[in-house]
Amino acid sequence: MIAVFLLILFIIRICRWLLFKHSALAGRYLYYLYYVSFIAMPMHSLSAAYCVSRDEQEEMPLLIRLLRGVTGILICGVLTNDLHHFVLGFGDRYDGNDHVSYHWLYYVIFVWSFAATLNSFVILIKKCKLSQCRRKWYIPIIPPAAALILIIIYYCSGGNSPSVNGVKLYNIQEVYLILYLGLWEGCITIGLIPSNTGYNRLFERTHINAEMKSTDGKTVYYSAGYSDTEGNADFIRKTSAIKGGSVTWSEDISALNRLNREIEDVTGQIEDENILIKEENRITAEKVRYETKNRLYDDIARHTRPQLLKIDRIMNESGELDKKMERCLLLGTYVKRCSNLMLVASECSTMSTNELCLSIRESLEQTGFPGIVCELTVGGERELPSGCIIAAYDVFEAVIEDVMDSEAALSVKVCPSDDILLSIETDQAADTGKISINESELTLNFFTEDEIQHIILSTGGAVNG
Question: Could you tell me where the beta strands, DSSP code E, fall in 52-197?
Answer without folding.
Answer: 88-90, 100-102, 163-164, 167-168
